[in-house]
Amino acid sequence: MEFSKGATFAGESFKGQKWTILGEPYLPLHVSETSMLMHAEFGPESFVPTHVHDLQDEILYLLEGRLEFETEGKVITASTGDTVTLPRGIPHAIFNRSGALARALVVVSPTATMYDYMVAIDGLVDPAEVMRLGAEHEVRFI
């Protein structure tokens, strides 16, 4: 796989890619062996079901809006400017219950199978298929 180098300017993405997963847009901004950075939008009332990254830590920095993270029996509410760290191996879910769009920078480290997973699920609208492919890429949905 070719990795990022140089600059990704505003409005651009890694290799010109734009992924739409279950109707939500993701732009890969940086890809290397050790990390991947994406810009993600979470529409009102959207959610990412409970899942576990076996290989990656996941970090979200909220650029706009409010998201709720359910992890380890707690609900963490994060707003613009907040950072949420979700360590590998810990089940978590992400909800936008705010009624407004939320935007975040999402980092996974190391990249491992995450880039290939995002490419595989681009354009999918069936949650069952997203979950099935997750199991093939070390992302387990619970």
Describe the structure in your own words:
- This protein is mainly β.
- It has a single domain (24-141), classed as Jelly Rolls.
- It contains 2 helices and 11 strands, in the order ββββββββββααβ.
- The protein has helices at residues 114-121, 127-136, and strands spanning 19-21, 24-31, 36-42, 47-53, 57-64, 66-71, 74-79, 83-86, 92-95, 102-109, 139-141.
- The strands form 2 sheets. A 6-stranded antiparallel beta sheet has the order 1-2-3-10-5-8, covered by helices on one side.
- A hairpin with a 2-residue loop joins strand 1 and strand 2 (24-31).
- The chain is globular and about 40 Å long.
- 23% of the residues are buried.
- The model has no long low-confidence stretch (mean pLDDT 96).
